[in-house]
Design goal:
The chain is mostly beta strands. It has a single domain, classed as Immunoglobulin-like (Sandwich). 0% of the residues lie in helices and 68% in strands. It is built from no helices and 9 strands. Strands 1, 2, 3, 4, 5, 6, 7, 8 and 9 form a 9-stranded mixed sheet that branches. Strand 5 and strand 6 form a beta hairpin. It is elongated. It starts with a strand and ends with a strand.
Length: 104
């Protein structure tokens, strides 16, 4: 496994945006090319894009207009990593967690 990823927080902000974040650790030489996430709550599903952040973290945002704070969401992450060897080495990593959507 190249990447260790997870969700540490998903928070519904007053402007109906959801901020998601979590720890991220890549093995040496691999570069994160794409990180997407999905949040599912009952019959609502939203998608967002994450980006590397300082301190070994990733952060992302998405529209959360139809989501309800204080209820559980299924959070799914998908990352694509590339090593610049020749030929290039491409790996994907997925993870899923159930956690409470907090209010910001």
């Amino acid at each position: 496994m190249v990447m260790k990823g997870a969700f540490s927080d998903v928070c519904l902000m007053p402007d109906h945006r959801v901020k998601a974040s979590g720890p991220m650790q890549n093995d040496e030489g691999f570069e994160l090319k794409r990180l997407n996430f999905m949040l599912s709550q009952k019959d609502v599903m939203v998608e967002g894009e994450g980006h590397p952040a300082d301190g070994g973290m990733w952060r992302g945002e998405t529209d959360g207009t139809s989501l309800v704070a204080g209820e559980w969401v299924y959070a799914v992450g998908v990352a694509v990593l590339v090593h610049p060897a020749w030929p290039p080495v491409v790996q994907t990593f997925t993870w899923c967690q159930q956690l409470e959507l907090t209010a910001g």
